[in-house]
Amino acid sequence: MVAVCLWLPFSLGAVERSLTIVAPEKSAAGESLQVVVAAGTSARHGERIGFFQVEAQQPGDAEWVPMIYLDNLGQEYRQEFTLTPVRAGELRVRARVAFRDGLAGDVDQTGAAIRWKDRWAHWREPTARHAVIRIAGAK
After folding, report:
1. DSSP-derived pairing of the beta strands 65-71 and 48-57
2. Residue 119 region, left (φ>0) first, then alpha (ψ -120 to 50), else beta?
3. Fewer CB under 10 Å: which end of the chain, C or N?
4. Radius of gyration (C-alpha) of the chain in whole angstroms
5. Which domain holds residue 118?
6. How far apart are CA 66 and CA 84, in angstroms?
7. Comparing C-alpha atoms, which of 54, 53, 61, 69 is closest to residue 85?
8. Predicted confidence band of residue 2 (pLDDT cuts 50, 70, 90)
9. Which of 82, 86, 81, 83 is nearest to 29 (CA)?
10. pLDDT in tens, 70-98
11. Considering its fold, how many domains does the chain have in total?
């Protein structure tokens, strides 16, 4: 009987990719609040955050306002935002990330291929994440 030992220079474990939004559930108009958006990948072989985009929508507004649009980042990125809602209602934050240049190609946090003209263009999950913060009237 012959024993064979193979040394592999890479992990056979699953790749972990993430996109998170951490925000309070509620706040009040005129009060500043903190929102943190973070993304990361454990993939190797060149995979990185290719696009990192965050937008916000004030209560009662129809327009989404870009907060940050970055590209060609490393394997992890975290951004903090301070927002001050101007009126009662729902303050919305949305974020999307595309992981690029790895063996898997352009993928979202689930590892699925990015559908640029569908989920990406329309900020749909799993490519995007959304947070809703309930805003009470001013104190």
Report:
1. antiparallel
2. alpha
3. N
4. 19
5. 17-136
6. 15
7. 61
8. very low
9. 86
10. 999 999 999 999 999 999 999 999 999 99
11. 1
